[in-house]
Amino acid sequence: KRLEYGILQRNLNETRRTLTDARIMAPRRAILSYINNQIGAQVGQGSKVAIVSDPDHFKVEGSIADLYASNVRVGVNVIVKIKGVQLAGSIINVDPLSHNGAISFTASLKKESDSILRQGAKVEVYLLGQEKNNVMRIANNSYYSQSGIYELFVLEGDKLVKRSVNLGESSYDYVEVVSGLKVGEKVVVSDMEDYKKSKVLNLK
To answer: Which residues contact 103 (CB under 8 A, 6 or more apart)?
Structure first.
C-alpha cells in the first residue's frame, strides 16, 4: 500500500505541476487581443495560444532588400514616418536569414507610446546609414535614383537653364550636392520629363 500511495502521490504532483505550467501569465500588463478558445485542442510547444497588446509600448517590424544587408545591424538609427509624423528609433534585432530577397528587422522607438501609433498599422521605415555635416543639399524627389550626374534645370534670371549636377548620397528628404550648384541657387526638382530635350526654358 505504501508503494501504491507513493506512486499516486508522484502522479498527483506531476499533474499539479502540469496544471501549474498550463497557466500562462502575460509578461506585462496589457490587453488580450486573441486567445485560442478551442476546448480540447492539443497545443504543441511553440503554438500560439494568445496575443496580448500593450498600447503603451510599440515596436516596428520592417524589411529591406538584402542588397543593403551590410547596412542592417543592431544599433542602426531609423526614422519611422506615419501620417506625416516622424518618430526616431533604432534596430534591436535582425533576422539572420533572407526571405524572398528581403531581410527583416525589429526597431524600438524612443517614444514608444505616441498616440498616432496603432497595432498592425503600416509605416515607412528609413535606415540612417551615415551622417554628413556641412554639405549642400536639395530636396529629394522622383528625379533621383542613385548618386551620379543629373541634368537639372537651374534658375538664371528669367530662364531655366539645364546644367549637369553631380549628386551624392540621399536621405528621405534631401540629396547631397557634390558639385554643379552654388549655395542659394534655385533648382527644379519636379518632373521635367516633357522638357528633357530642351536646354533653356523661358519663364512667363
So the answer is: 63, 64, 65, 66, 68, 69, 72, 94, 95
Angle 164-169-172 from CA coordinates, rounded to 5°: 110
The residue type at 4:
E
Contact status, residue 185 vs residue 154, Cβ threshold 8 Å: yes
Can you give the pLDDT of all 204 residues of the chain as single tens digits? Answer: 899 999 999 999 999 998 887 777 777 777 787 888 888 888 887 788 888 877 778 889 999 988 888 888 899 999 898 888 889 999 999 998 888 899 999 999 988 777 788 878 889 898 887 778 889 999 999 899 889 999 999 999 999 999 999 999 888 789 999 999 999 999 999 988 888 889 999 987
Contact 53, 40 (CB under 8 A): no
pTM across the whole model: 0.55
Cα–Cα distances in angstroms (integers) from residue 62 to residues 98, 99, 111, 122, in the given order? 13, 13, 17, 10
Residue 122's Cα: distance from chain center in Å?
10
Residue with cell 548618386: 147
Cα 151 to Cα 199: distance, rounded to the nearest angstrom: 10
Grid cell 506512486 is found at: 7
Residue 143 in grid coordinates:
528625379
